[in-house]
Amino acid sequence: MTNLFHSILDHIEYAILITDKDAKYVFVNKFVRDNTNTSLSDWAGKRIEDILAIGIYDKSYILDVMDKKQEVSGIIYTEKGYSSLSTCTPIFDHNGNIKYVVTVSVNPDRFNNLLEKATLASDINLVYKQEVEYLRNTLLSNSEFIFASDHMKKLFASILKFAPTDSTILITGETGSGKEVIAKTIHQNSKRKEGPFISICIPSIPSTLLESEIFGYEKGAFTGSNSMGKPGLVELANHGTLFLDELGDISIELQVKLLRLLDTLEVTRLGSIESKKLDIRIIAATNKDLYEMVNKKTFREDLLYRLSIIHLPIKPLRERPEDIIALSDHFIDIINKKYGYQKKLTQQSYRVLQSYSWPGNVRELRNVIERICIMSDNNTIMEEEIINVLGNYNKLIQNIPVDDSLKPKSIIDDFHNWEKDKVLDSLIKNNGNKTLAAKSLGISRSKLYRLLEKY
């Protein structure tokens, strides 16, 4: 029975720790051992103070349980900086004395699943539910929606206004501009936030399977289908939000079924004659001009109007340079935490990033920032390092001058023009004193002489 008991606990993907009446560890499951690179012998007989002293966890609620003789929950942090919800439960002997304390810690990645189960469990205590809700909001709410530009501020204000309604929303913008982030933010600020958010990327599903994946099918509906049938993604979004990404790639035939879904909020599986009533909100997104597609008869006009009750257009990143700085700082913060770095950008580096056209928008910015952070040998990332990376893409800068005679031919040309102006301006302000000019520019005299020779 002991072996069975240990085997069961080792197969649970939560951190489970058991201490005795003296607050000594008698068992930790495999999840804990694997994540702390320890063995059972490293824990056996150790007291709470011993574990806290070596920094595996920053705190424990076990002593609180022994003092209060009741279950206690709270937030702890691991040595790797991950937060977890820790619940410590006492086990009493026949005399009413604490014999063991069982600690269960849940990883943030499983909070959503926990919250769903918590709402169904009648015996979970109030503190536990409050902690889970707090962490869920902290980890999910607008965590990816980073902005500083007036355009995005107005867009966010619109989101807060429209999110509580059930109106369909059409989000348009270039590839990588953050349309799914907008959709998630709408969901998280709606009355459906406790329900599912189901995202369907239309081009990612083979056209021959798209209808059955979206609307589901009954058993035996077609050759090779699941013998038990299968609910579609539309059904899985019931009581939540259905996000249709890259909607411009959907076929005319499926547009008809989608229009019926919008009109009736009913779905009929393939091979069935019965309809199922749904409670869903639909958000769609595309990087294509649906109005032009309507003119070309490749997109239904009635479907377009039905989807775009509310239209949220997102400007490309090159047209909102203020967001480049905010997003760059956000991505660097993520990368620093991920790899244990202490990277940062100079003001000149921000200027270079703002000068680039970013054809891949936010997605490209994130990839470039990660690449630069990994490639750089220094904590301070200089402008030359960014130019070396961006220059390889050989993309023209589209967002600076309109006059072609003034327009730089590449990001390197633009940076050199800016650098030259900064050097000359500093020399003028310091009456030609090269020592003071170099100091005001934050560079050495030798580098200033190299720049003077260069220009």
Helix/strand layout:
Elements: H1 2-10, E1 15-20, E2 25-28, H2 30-36, H3 40-43, H4 48-53, H5 62-68, E3 72-77, E4 83-92, E5 98-106, H6 111-120, H7 126-140, H8 150-162, E6 169-172, H9 179-188, E7 197-201, H10 207-215, E8 216-217, E9 230-231, H11 233-236, E10 241-245, H12 252-264, E11 266-267, E12 276-277, E13 281-286, H13 290-295, H14 301-307, E14 310-313, H15 321-339, E15 344-345, H16 347-355, H17 361-375, E16 380-381, H18 383-391, H19 411-429, H20 434-441, H21 445-454
Parallel strand pairs: 6-13, 6-14, 7-10, 10-13, 15-16
Antiparallel strand pairs: 1-2, 1-5, 3-4, 4-5, 8-9, 11-12
Helix pairs in contact: 6-7, 12-14, 15-16, 15-17, 16-18, 19-20, 20-21
Organism: Tissierella carlieri
InterPro entries: AAA+_ATPase (IPR003593), AAA_lid_NorR (IPR058031), Homeodomain-like_sf (IPR009057), HTH_Fis (IPR002197), P-loop_NTPase (IPR027417), PAS-like_dom_sf (IPR035965), Sigma_54_int (IPR002078), Sigma_54_int_dom_ATP-bd_1 (IPR025662)
Protein name: Sigma 54-interacting transcriptional regulator
